[in-house]
Amino acid sequence: MTPLLAARGVTKAFGATVALDGLDLEVERGEFLVLVGASGCGKSTLLNLFAGFERPTSGEVLFDGERIRDVEPRCGMVFQNYALFEWLTVAENVSFGPRLRGRPDPARVSQLLQLVGVADFARHYPAQLSGGMRQRVALARTLANDPDVLLCDEPFAALDAMTRQVLQQELARIVEEERRTCVFITHSIDEALLLADRVAVLSARPGRVKQTLVNDLPRPRTAEMQLDDAFVARKRAIWASVQEEVLLHRGGDVRC
Amino acid sequence: MRSFPATLTPQRRLRYGIVGVVALLLVWWALTLPVFEEQVTHMERVATGTFDTGRDPRTGEEVRVERFDVVPRVETVRRALVNPPALATPTDTARRAWGLLTADRPNQPSLLAHVGRSTTRILLGFALSALIGVPLGVAMGLFPVLRAMLSPIVSFLRPLPSISWVPLTMIWLGADEKQKVAIVFLGTFSAALIYTVEATLRVHPDLIKAARNLGASENQVLWRVLLPAALPNIVSGLKVVMAIGWTCVISAEIVGSQEGLGALIWTSKETADTAAVFVGMASISVIVLLLDALFGLVERQLLPYLFLRETGR
Questions:
Q1: Do the chains contact at A87 and B303, CB–CB below 8 Å?
Q2: Which CATH number fits domain B113-304: 3.30.390.30, 1.10.3720.10, 3.30.70.20, 2.60.40.10?
Q3: What pTM, to 2 d.p., does this model score?
Q4: Tell me, what's the ipTM?
Q5: B208 touches chain A (CB under 8 A)
């Protein structure tokens, strides 16, 4: 079976800087893949390739077996800084994609607002919302476009620890309910283990997949699980792998 | 000692603001109060009542000529710290303001005519700047080639003070209304352009990425994301441009104009009419404040989301 997303021998250089060097990665349909790695290892570059914002210098990036040649709306992006449209209300933000195609679907919008828990704030503007709420809206906006894949670029990095934990669990629930494929970038190994079916550790620049670990911890995963032996053992394994890269290229920032 | 920065409630801010203004008026009034007595000595010719008699050498007639003495006369004058015409008194200024409002002198336009003329010139010049500067600025923000081509020209035009455009515009257009509007336009255009370019460049690239990712075409990105996202900074830039317009119109009106607040201030100088100068200057401030408030209202209507506070959980 063809993987939903695939990077085959992907190299991406920006001038003299080589961000990715011969990277191979496959993402199965319905899989939750988390990418961890030292800062500057090209994780965001990889997401930009999947989203079609960038083209690889060599190698190929495939969606469902087809080469990605342009911006790929079937891969919906969630940004760290939310990237909400400040001049639109919450409901207008969420319906932005469908309205572009002249097919507004108010019922689906309110269903999504319900799903991410901001139904009471449909008429609010983003400026009136807290960071966690904004990220919920951004997630709903991406889901409204009905993408096959969610590309999440450290979406919870700017949130406080409590909010982050709540949103991690909600994202896991939503992805499961909506049956989406997800490629998720994070600095936090805890976050990776709470969310991932599979964790891919990237090497320091130039980025390559150093190691992938299947994470078969039972779902639903809760905060308390972080104390279980199975969790700690996996965390230690990933930590050692990432740490090696960080030490190899000093100055990374990996949060534990 | 209290910690800084300390703040005041709006009521107290207003109260202290009024205190400040009243204090300034009091100082002004005090400066013009005739508090000093000064002895001034005049030399005066005083008739003595005695006469000299003699003959006119040409006609031979007898003439009588009265004798005069020159005597000092001491007079007591009351003086202020600063005397008119250097500083008109508050009451003189108020009287002059009323006089200007009611156009009490023949052949002189009323204050409202001055205000109306200046405001028209500014609004026309400003509208021209905005209509050309904003679209061109957005285009420069979007297209690096255009930006690279026009930036040196803009950098060259920007430092020119509006008054330096007076000679050329006079030669090209004469001293009519067109020339006044042209000076406002030339003096504000580069600012309108630069503010718009910066507003466009400051739009966060993730917003554009998000829109593209949601399926927006280039055209949709421009109209639905880039322009709305840049609009707040464009509007606040235009607010500054409007204020620059005032400095332009005043320099335009100093030369070759009978009407307008610049003309009022300048011609009043000729007659050392400080009161009229004060009235003219105060009018400029009041109108700028009014236009700013008007701009603020438009902003609140057009961009309501900029004036919101976080209320969500």
A1: yes
A2: 1.10.3720.10
A3: 0.82
A4: 0.90
A5: no
